[in-house]
Amino acid sequence: MSPPPQARKVFVKSFGCQMNVYDAERMKDVLAGEGYGEAADIENADLIVLNTCHIRERASEKVFSELGKLRELKDGRRALGKSTRIAVAGCVAQAEGGEILRRQAAVDIVIGPQSYHRFPELLRRSDNGSRIVDTEFPVEDKFDHLPAPTTEAIRSRGVSAFVTIQEGCDKFCSFCVVPFTRGAEISRPLARVIEDARLLVDAGVAEITLLGQNVNAYHGADETGATRGLRHLFERLAAIPGLERIRYMTSHPNDFDDELVAAHAEIDKVMPFVHLPVQSGSDRILKAMNRKHRIEEYLETIRRLRAARPDLALSSDFIVGFPGESDADFEDTIGLIHEVNFASAFSFKYSPRPGTKAAELTNQVPETVKIERLARLQELEVAQRREFNQATIGREVDVLFEKTGRHPGQIGGKSPYLQAVHVEGPVNLVGRVAKVRIVGLKPNSLTGELV
Ligand code: 5AD
Ligand code: SF4
């Protein structure tokens, strides 16, 4: 028996990037309109959504093993007379489509990232037991059809919020599935982004992170139909009273125009942190990756950014063991990391993604070599992060407080450089920015004192 609509519960289990975190929220918003509340735990959900990521290693296998467990859960609930629907969303859904229904009988719905606004319709179509796949790239813009979150939902998600402003990618780096799973690059119109931001700020949000696979290539239409870049969007957002901080990710090295670089010097609300993946320090490998820039150009972009904002914190993504990567290529990557000095970095072993150009290359690097290189790179990354954090000790920084800490009397937030900071302080500072003197360093955070 299906529960009455008002008692239905959904549990969204998300993997992968920040855009998936954001998408999970939008799915909950659209399902709230169908009477679905949020389940506190997966065992009590009438609808389970697996929001999947396809970017790296064994993504599909992980999803199928996860689905095996959900099948047991579904069977267990059925024995108690409760029905459960299982939906697979995200990039694995997009990439695998109907294959998921064929391989796992417990799945009811497969829904690609561009179809989330159609969730209610798909649920209704599956009411009679039909199994459904929707991985179209619809002509309509999903954002025009996704409902706005309620004030209550926004508050429950905290003072720092995500807004997708750009989705998809036309760059076709040879290792990457994103152009296939998220489709062509599109930018949302400026007015819609501002509207979303206002709603969030009115409900108490103080920091917005603008999301896109190539966020600095943003080119949304303004109210007159003219195309505007990210710099203009920053200015419009900065004019919203109550919005304290603007962040953005992920950027591509080829899309930093002078206006955008200057924003880091000219707009106080734009935080001094840029996530700028370079992937490799070798020009030869960059070429094979189809990155369309050389190391010198990457370094020049960093020089321009640092000239605009000397205290800028930089982070990057690296892939080790791309096909054909030699010891010398890898040493170039290590050299680049030494030269730039990153505040943080994410690094991954190359994993062939079905359908991408690089997956067809025959000169794959042995797993043992990948493991070794990754360990060396990560050791250096940890050392640089520590050094960067160490350098903030004794300094006064603005902290946006996000939540109460683990210990009573403690509150936690983020520095402008995205470092986690804990202090002893009053709960009413949550949602506000206050000056903090950094006094100590813990493995994953800084400790400080309110000034
Ligand atoms: N193998 C390993 N890492 C990858 N990434 C993207 N595709 C792959 C792949 N096939 C990494 C890149 C990218 C980040 C989001 O994931 O570093 O910037
Ligand atoms: Fe993938 Fe390259 Fe596009 Fe980034 S720029 S999403 S790595 S194809």
Q: What distinguishing features does this structure have?
A:
six-stranded parallel beta sheet, OB fold (Dihydrolipoamide Acetyltransferase, E2P), 21 strands, pyruvate-formate lyase- activating enzyme, Rossmann fold, alpha/beta, single chain, about 35% helix, about 450 residues, binds 5'-deoxyadenosine, globular, binds iron/sulfur cluster, five-stranded mixed beta barrel
Strand content: 15-25%
CATH topology-level fold name of the largest domain: pyruvate-formate lyase- activating enzyme
Write out the distinct hetero groups bound to the structure.
5'-deoxyadenosine, iron/sulfur cluster
CATH architecture of the largest domain: Alpha-Beta Horseshoe
Radius of gyration: 23 Å
Average pLDDT number:
95
Distance between the termini: 59 Å
Give the count of helical stretches.
15
CATH class of the largest domain equals Alpha Beta
- The name of the CATH superfamily of the largest domain reads tm_1862 like domain
Give the uncertain stretches in residue-range form.
none
Give, in spatial order, the strands making up the sheet with the most strands. 2-1-3-4-5-6
